[in-house]
């Protein structure tokens, strides 16, 4: 049996701080800068093709400074496995699954 996939207990967006924060069921906390999350969009267009959609973004994107402020990110649940983020620029094609969000957690423990 596969280990259970941790799911978020709480997802909060702070436009003031420009972060999306996730409290996971296993107690882990992830804080994603909004601009990095926009760059980490998992859709085929942003990843460079359908065959690359399963790949993770370059972890470098979380080390780059934020270039843009996002004032109205809209977060919606997609089933019980993901969120869709609609960005100020209208882009909403990316489905951020729990699995992928956890894999790209930029905290010191996860990113090393
Ligand atoms: Zn995209
Ligand atoms: Zn982490």
Tell me what the structure shows.
With 112 residues, the protein is of the alpha+beta class. The protein has one domain: NE0471 N-terminal domain-like. The protein contains four helices and six strands, in the order βββααβββαα. The chain is globular and about 30 Å long. It starts with 7 loop residues before the first strand and ends with a helix. Bound molecules: zinc ion (2 copies). One zinc ion binds next to helix 2.
What is the multimeric organization of the chains shown? single chain
CATH architecture: 2-Layer Sandwich
Q: What is the CATH top level name?
A: Alpha Beta
For the CA atoms, what is the radius of gyration? 13 Å
- SS elements, strand count: 6
Order of helices and strands: EEEHHEEEHH
Distance from N terminus to C terminus (CA atoms, Å) equals 28 Å
| Biggest sheet character | 3 strands, antiparallel
């Amino acid at each position: 049996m596969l280990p259970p996939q941790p799911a978020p207990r709480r997802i909060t967006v702070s436009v003031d701080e420009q972060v999306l924060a996730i409290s996971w069921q296993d107690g882990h906390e992830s804080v994603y800068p909004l601009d990095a999350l926009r760059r980490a969009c998992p859709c085929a267009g942003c990843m460079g093709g359908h065959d690359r959609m399963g790949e993770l973004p370059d972890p470098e994107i979380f080390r780059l400074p934020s270039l843009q402020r996002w004032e109205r990110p809209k977060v919606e649940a997609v089933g019980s496995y993901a969120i869709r983020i609609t960005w100020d620029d209208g882009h909403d094609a990316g489905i951020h699954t729990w699995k992928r969000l956890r894999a790209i957690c930029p905290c010191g423990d996860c990113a090393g």
